[in-house]
């Protein structure tokens, strides 16, 4: 939902949230009923002090709460066939690989049909081009499972379309190429973590000092359980 993304991003980045006259409610997606994000949410105004909590609850509603009824029905039927205790040992990435199998990812095709965004629109610096070259070198050194996890981290899926990376689509079904966005480095460790934007098939790579540093943080994020919502 591009409009939801733009509105949430604007709210996060700007002050004086109280001028928007928002409260801790949201309009339902089906029968347009007003849903309180917290008990008594209609009486709680969104301010600069609580807007982070509001955004977190709003996104959780759109991702989970708004589809709770059909999701619960699906899970009930699914667990009747595959008991929960049999799959609870897997994280979501492992379960995806278990269902889909290990994909054969062509790194050359991946690189050819990728886009690069630099910190500025002008000609990139030597440091920026080095980060991109290191990234592809690390990807080439990865095992098939690590490549699948990386693709999943950046796009939300570990599978490549039959037509290859040129046919990679975003969550809205439109063709959207895998994109590397080079960004300025921040204070470690969080400021050096790559960030995945699965709605846009994009990964943000800070300006690493060397290939080893990039490999360290890239390997870390693809092997950890990522939770929460990041708005950039």
UniProtKB/TrEMBL annotation:
Species, as recorded: Aphanomyces astaci (Crayfish plague agent)
Recorded superkingdom: Eukaryota
Record protein name field: HECT-type E3 ubiquitin transferase
GO MF terms held by the record: ubiquitin protein ligase activity
Keyword Transferase assigned: yes
Xref: Pfam families: HECT (PF00632)
Pathways per UniProt: Protein modification; protein ubiquitination
Keyword line: Transferase, Ubl conjugation pathway
